[in-house]
Structure to design on (229 residues):
C-alpha cells in the first residue's frame, strides 16, 4: 500500500494531497502546473514535502513529525521521465544494466533477467545501439527497462508517452498495463490527457493548482464518469 500525505509550498501555490493506493495504475490527472511532477518527486525522494507522511508497505520514506527522510537511492523506486533521460554515451544494454542492484549481478536474484526485460519490451535487437540511433518509442522502452531493472517496489512515470505519435503511444499503453500485471507493484503515472487517463488508470487523482479536487476508481464500463470531472 502506497500512502501519501503531502503539503509543500511552491511559488504561487501549495501542494496539498492525501491518498492511499494498493496496486494497479494510479493516474495523477490535471493541467500543466497542477503540481503532478512535484508529487512524483516527493514520492521519489528528489524533493521533500514541507510536512506530511509517505510510506510504502512497512517502509516509512518520509515523516515530518518523526523527522525521517529516506534518501532517493534507498527507496527502491523506479522513475521514467518524459524525455527518457538515457545516458547518450552508453549503449541500450549498458543503459538497462545501469540500475541493476549488485546482488543481482552476483547471484542472479532479480525478478527478471536483463534479457527477459528487454525481450518483454521488444528491444533485444537494439542492445548495441546508442540513444541517438533510437526512435522516441524505442527510447521510452529502454527507459522502462532501466527503471524495472532497479527491482522497484514502486514505479513512477512522468508523462512518458506525451511526445510519442499516436500509434506508438497506443502500443506502449498496452505494454504498460501488461508490465504492471507482471510486476504487481503500484504504478503512479502523470498525464494531462483524458484519453490516456481512461486507457491506463485503475484509480485517478484529480489535481488543480496543487489541490486535490477529487479521486475515483476508473470503472471502464462507465468511462464517461471520468470526463465529468
Amino acid at each position: 500500500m502506497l500512502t501519501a500525505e503531502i503539503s509543500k509550498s511552491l511559488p504561487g501555490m501549495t501542494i496539498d494531497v492525501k491518498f492511499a493506493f494498493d496496486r494497479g495504475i494510479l493516474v495523477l490527472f490535471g493541467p500543466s502546473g497542477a503540481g503532478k511532477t512535484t508529487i512524483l518527486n516527493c514520492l521519489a525522494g528528489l524533493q521533500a514535502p514541507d510536512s506530511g507522511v509517505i510510506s510504502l508497505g512497512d517502509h516509512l520514506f518520509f515523516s515530518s513529525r518523526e523527522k525521517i527522510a529516506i534518501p532517493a537511492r534507498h527507496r527502491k523506486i523506479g522513475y521514467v521521465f518524459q524525455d527518457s533521460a538515457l545516458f547518450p554515451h552508453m549503449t541500450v544494454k549498458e543503459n538497462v544494466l545501469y540500475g541493476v542492484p549488485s546482488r543481482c549481478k552476483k547471484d542472479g536474484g532479480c525478478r527478471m533477467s536483463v534479457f527477459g526485460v528487454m525481450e518483454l519490451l521488444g528491444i533485444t535487437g537494439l542492445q548495441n545501439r546508442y540513444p541517438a540511433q533510437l526512435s522516441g518509442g524505442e527510447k521510452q522502452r529502454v527507459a522502462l527497462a532501466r527503471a524495472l531493472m532497479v527491482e522497484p517496489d514502486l514505479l513512477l512515470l512522468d508523462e512518458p508517452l506525451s511526445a510519442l505519435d499516436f500509434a506508438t503511444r497506443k502500443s506502449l499503453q498496452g505494454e504498460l498495463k501488461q508490465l504492471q500485471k507482471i510486476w504487481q507493484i503500484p504504478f503512479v503515472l502523470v498525464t494531462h490527457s483524458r484519453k490516456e487517463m481512461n486507457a491506463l488508470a485503475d484509480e485517478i487523482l484529480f489535481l488543480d493548482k496543487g489541490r486535490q479536487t477529487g479521486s475515483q476508481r476508473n470503472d471502464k464500463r462507465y468511462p464517461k464518469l471520468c470526463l465529468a470531472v
Q: What stands out?
A: The helical segments are 36-44, 92-97, 102-107, 114-120, 136-148, 166-183, 194-200, 224-227. The chain has a mean pLDDT of 87. The chain is about 30% helix and 30% strand. The CA atoms of residues 16 and 211 lie 5 Å apart.
